[in-house]
Amino acid sequence: MTFIKKTLASSIAIAATAAMATTAQAEISDGEIRIGYLADMSGVYRDLAGPGGLEALRMAVEDFGGSVNGAPIQVFSADDRNSADVGANTVREWIDTRNVDMVAGLVASSVTIAVTRVLEENDSFGIVSASAASSITNEHCTPNHIHWVYDTYPLANGTAQAVVQQGGETWFMLTADYAFGHALEGDVTRVVEENGGEIIGRVRHPFPTDDFSSYILQAQGSGAQIIGLANAGADTVNAINTASQFGVVEAGQQLAGLLVFLNDVHAMGLEATQGLLLTTGWYWDMDDEAREWSERYYERVGRMPTMVQAGIYSSTYHYLQAVEATGSDDPQTVREYMMSQPIHDFFARNGQLREDGRMVHDMYLARVKSPEESEGEWDLYEILTTIPAAEAYRPLSESQCKLVQN
Amino acid sequence: MTMIFGVPLAVFMGQLLLGLINGAFYALLSLGLAVIFGLLKIVNFAHGAMYMLGAFATLLGMRYLGINFWAALVLAPLFVGLLGMLVERFLLRRIGHLDHLYGLLLTFGLALIFEGTLVNFFGVSGARYPTPEALQGGFQTGFMFLPKYRAFVLVAAIAVCLVTWYIIERTRLGAYLRAGTENPALMQAFGVNVPLLVTLTYGFGVALAAFAGVLAAPLYPVSPTMGSNLLIVVFAVVVIGGMGSILGAVLTGLGMGLIEGLTKVYYPEAANTVIFLVMILVLMLRPAGLFGKEA
Fold this sequence. Notes:
The complex is a heterodimer of chains A (406) and B (295).
Chain A: H1 2-27, E1 33-39, H2 50-63, E2 67-68, E3 71-79, H3 84-98, E4 102-105, H4 109-121, E5 126-128, E6 145-147, H5 152-165, E7 170-176, H6 179-194, E8 198-205, H7 213-222, E9 226-230, H8 233-245, E10 254-257, H9 262-268, H10 270-273, E11 277-280, H11 288-301, H12 307-326, H13 331-340, E12 352-353, E13 359-360, E14 363-368, E15 381-387, H14 389-392
Parallel strand pairs in A: 1-3, 1-4, 5-6, 7-8, 7-9, 9-10
Antiparallel strand pairs in A: 2-3, 11-14, 12-13, 14-15
Chain B: E1 3-4, E2 7-8, H1 9-40, H2 47-65, H3 69-90, H4 100-122, E3 138-140, E4 145-147, H5 148-170, H6 172-182, H7 184-189, H8 194-216, H9 226-241, H10 246-266, H11 274-285
Antiparallel strand pairs in B: 1-2, 3-4
Protein name (chain B): Branched-chain amino acid ABC transporter permease
Family (chain B): Belongs to the binding-protein-dependent transport system permease family. LivHM subfamily.
Main location (chain B): membrane
């Protein structure tokens, strides 16, 4: 009798444990966390995110231990070739056939906006790290994505404001002709005009463009004090190089690069870029925590990380922490948890995820060093001021996002 | 100030000059394509990659071997030309008897391999090549500041185009080339080594592309994708000019540079598409191209 009781009791106990285990497991769909990394792996934006970003994501997964609550983390990637169609189709396929839990990377703003629509339709989740358009968490916001590293709003706030305050009042805008360029141009126009400056001319160039000589000539002809570059990546590099060939700076005009990445400055060299003011979300050499992580990254990749690559690590790690804490990979559960936690790591200072999906954190106004000041291949920026998180980004009171009650 | 359609004359003239300089690049590249297509009937999709290799040979030559720009102007085309001859001798020749499509696919594949390999080592940000010292600075021309180097590019490119045209149309060697492609068997019977001639022609065609690459190195960032960006435009130029027409390729190249330059002033959003619009118009009205012979 005791024997039967004992057996019965232990069977029930085993059954109960098993049942509990399956309940916990059921919260993480398929018993696996699947992260798809979508980025430009071969085109003009490759070096700012690309394979380096994928490596940063892998570092985050490894540092997390490779699994969450016993569920292994699987990472796969694809090249969006800067095409909105390719990006949206890839993500649709990931959702349909691979049950992707989180889409990371996301570079060109046009691709991102297309992808976030797919994410919303299918109630999946995405973390945007590399795109710039502030519209991604404004008119294009969805409950299914968040935006981590930076956007055009603080870029304009930081750089344009600093330049106007230094006396650069008349501007000529050189704008990349797509979502990101338009957003940046709009934000810059607002900041320049609010500070008493004026936009006296602009030209929208196709994306991407190799030859900027014609546009630089038009900018020279305009007589503006400042030539604002509302473009990114190779376009900015080409524009700055062309400007130096045409003696723009010698003739008394100044360039304002509104979105300049570390790899751009590295590619152009300090001779061509010294003195350039820029706004960045992070810099590898800004303090000990940042340096320590960057040195680990450097050992794996052989280059110093851009703010985007660091942001991919940071956002992935926070995502995994949220999955671990909630025991779920449901997009809304995870997002709510991420919003409830302050975000502070080697990347984000005073970080907070808002209801529009914008992760606001401290931004920095930097100046590119001169060749004499620089002490090494990657010693490129001097951080001038910190733009506090609360002032850097578009205030929620001005938001057009459908998730914000105004 | 005199205005032309709402644009100051000075700006207008400046844009024309810049358009002409870009046109010189189109001319050099489409010339190489036209020579190869005209004489070998190969649609050389590796042409952009050869242009890119010319620029990379210049950059790496300076970085690792200390070769200066002027030496690179000769050595880089030689190196890429040799590479092209190897490609012709060992790859293209094997498929010479098949449909043109196979040549197109083979050269396209080669271009992807060259590009992909270099992307792996150098990324896509591109490296800067310094403007040669003798050509730094520029002239104040009255209507614009013209960098000396761009003026040099214009002169050098047009000179090379003219020499090429002269060799093919006006010399004995050129006559052999043209005859060899019309009727290889007959030429062979006359004791001319036609396969060698074909190899040399392909080498020469890609050397022209590499020459353009050397000229481009100080102007644009040297990056593995620089060729593929340009190639499609250059193909459009060749189609507009007429496949296989040497003089047509040069004149169309310069003309398209001008049209593109003006578009950049009046409607910059269309600067990347205007050449294709012209191409569609030409295909509709004169399918053989502006300078092509009706088939």
